[in-house]
Design a protein that fits this description.
By secondary structure, this protein is of the alpha+beta class. Helix content is about 55%, strand content about 10%. It has a domain of about 130 residues. Helix 11 crosses helix 16.
């Protein structure tokens, strides 16, 4: 039956041996007090809580879901108590600003905790994720007065935060949104309009919910340049300062969804609700993207966390399920058949799942390191890290989630018919992960962001340092020659595709849309290869199954998955004619 096991040994290997995070933290002002022993204890306690408290809620919560009655949402049994327990442990404010009650831990540590929470129960994990994202936006853009009131309550978990962007007519194109903000005499604003797809827009485990709402002022110019960001609390203070007065907002309906059914996805109605401007007028999209860029990495982590759950359960099942005999001879002579893990095609699926998951975990930690560097390093070094974050965030969001979905489908396939039955848990992973490819900017949009805004707009200059870093590493790392050659070939495919797109874009305005997804997948495939070479080098000369298997997995990735780079390069360079095909002859 479904269970969860925290990948603590994987975290230890990646943090201490592959990336040397203890030394990295010590080198950054603001993180010098973070020691490895503390980090290990944080990981241990988070893993224990996720295994024992959160994971057991996952399947039943999915079965029950949330309900709405008289504007009030009832969450699945155990969610409220779990959230209060999680908050009491200080987990909500783990990476928050210490000035307002956060713990100030590095993102490269917090990200690992986020994986365990999301992997244990994604529907639950969305609540602290959104609160942390709201805190990031407020800490960066709100006034000191607002920070002093709201951040301590959010970090403590007493209040929760959500973001309200999407409207029925405005999804990817937020320039179409219609929600209005009218100035009040006291300096606040009256917010009116409806928002859809608002994750945890209403719930029963915190007293107050802080909505960050995009809306238009009366003098707003059209399009995205006329959007402002407002803080709109569910509850307002009364004359005595008690936060008990209902604001003029409410949940009008709950969406019926394919996955994350234990999470309330709300239609939110604002009827002159009182709110306060965050940041400058008409600069709301930039303020909101501070939150969204944070959450795009966490969405990638979400997908990876759930894919890890799919893998460990598929692995357990493959060891216990007896079907037929191994083609290389009987492996279970005392039983009627051999475990299916002895069959080559099942091993292929499990090896692919493992290769993608372990590379994805390394990659998100690598991006999280860059986030820490951008926040805490000095001047030029901070800008270098910020450029890395800008370049790799769309890959972290889109490639991690695309491969996580592929992984969960493989996990379901390992189970055969049982994978299609709810009690085994695999179909829930497939349903839950699917949303990660859609929200916080669809993966197609992420691909166009990477190729259009990051590669083309910089004429490849944003990409060049990362390519150089990978080339320098592979030239000097202690890795087998076959792995080195396979990676250098894939890196060459990425370089050639980049050069072709840069040249083609001079005459073809549709080139980005035509080949962006293939380009992002090529970049992601190379990024995962880079991660495997770094893991292989770290395992070189070390004894034990753990290190031996790391090198074996690196060889598997380079031999069986990385060669897909040639096909992706060919797909990119072959975008001349197929897109001109019409649909006029199709009956509809």
């Amino acid at each position: 039956m479904p269970h969860y096991k925290a990948p603590l040994r994987e975290f230890e290997f990646l943090m201490a041996e592959v990336f040397d995070l203890p030394h990295f933290w010590q080198s950054l002002p603001g993180l010098a007090e973070v020691d490895w022993e503390t980090a290990q204890e944080v990981l241990k306690q988070a893993g224990k809580w996720c295994e024992e408290v959160l994971a057991p809620l996952n399947r039943e919560a999915d079965e029950v879901g949330c309900s709405l009655k008289d504007g009030r949402v009832t969450t699945p049994a155990g969610f409220a108590a779990a959230y209060q327990d999680y908050s009491a442990g200080g987990w909500v404010g783990l990476g928050g600003n210490p000035q307002y009650g956060g713990m100030g831990l590095p993102k490269s540590l917090v990200a690992a905790v986020e994986e365990m929470v999301q992997g244990s129960c994604m529907a639950f994990g969305l609540a602290p994720m959104l609160t942390a994202g709201a805190c990031v936006a407020l800490d960066a853009h709100a006034s000191d007065a607002i920070k002093e009131v709201y951040l301590p309550k959010l970090y403590s978990g007493e209040w929760a935060g959500v973001m309200d962007l999407t409207e029925p007519q405005a999804g990817t194109d937020l320039g179409l949104l219609r929600t209005k903000a009218q100035p009040n005499e006291d300096g606040s604003f009256a917010i009116s309009g409806s928002k859809i797809f608002i994750t945890w827009g209403e719930q029963d485990f915190t007293d107050n919910i802080i909505h960050l709402v995009l809306a238009r002022l009366p003098d707003a110019p059209p399009g995205v340049k006329g959007i402002s960001l407002f803080l709109v609390p569910k509850l307002l203070p009364n004359a005595q300062g008690e936060w008990v007065e209902p604001n003029a907002l409410g949940c009008g309906a709950l969406e019926k969804k394919m996955g994350i059914k234990a999470c309330a996805t709300c239609v939110m109605n604002f009827d002159g609700a009182k709110g306060w401007l965050i940041g400058e007028a008409h600069q709301g999209l930039a303020c909101m993207f501070t939150m969204m860029n944070y959450e795009r990495l966490v969405v990638g982590i979400q997908g990876l966390g759930a894919a890890h759950g799919s893998f460990i359960q598929a692995l357990d099942y493959a060891h216990s399920r007896l079907q037929s005999r191994s083609p290389t001879g009987i492996k279970n002579p005392s039983g009627p058949a051999d475990p299916i893990i002895e069959h080559p095609d099942v091993r292929r699926m499990l090896l692919t799942m493992r290769a993608l998951n372990e590379a994805g975990r390394a990659f998100y930690l690598y991006v999280a390191m860059a986030l820490d560097g951008a926040k805490y390093a000095q001047a030029d070094e901070a800008r270098r890290h910020a450029d890395t974050v800008a370049l790799l965030t769309p890959i972290a969001k889109a490639f991690l989630t695309d491969k996580a979905f592929d992984t969960a489908v493989l996990g379901q396939q390992v189970f055969g018919g049982h994978g299609y039955i709810r009690e085994w848990g695999q179909e829930q992973y497939v349903r839950d992960i699917r949303i990660t490819q859609i929200y916080e900017g669809t993966n197609g949009i992420q691909s166009m962001d990477l190729l259009g805004r990051k590669i083309l707009s910089s004429q490849g200059q944003l990409l060049a340092p990362w390519l150089t870093q990978m080339q320098q590493f592979v030239a000097s790392a202690a890795v087998p020659e076959a792995q080195r050659q396979a990676f250098e070939q894939a890196l060459g495919h990425l370089r050639a595709a980049t050069a072709w797109v840069l040249e083609r874009a001079k005459t073809d305005p549709a080139v980005v849309g035509n080949c962006a997804v293939a380009y992002l997948h090529l970049a992601g495939l190379v990024a995962y290869g880079y991660m495997w070479l770094r893991m292989s080098a770290a395992a070189e000369g070390r004894d034990g199954d753990f290190y031996r298997e790391k090198q074996q997995m690196a060889a598997f990735y380079c031999q069986h998955l990385l060669p897909q780079s040639l096909a992706l390069q060919g797909q990119i360079l072959g975008t001349d004619n197929p897109w001109a095909v019409g649909f006029n002859s199709v009956e509809r």
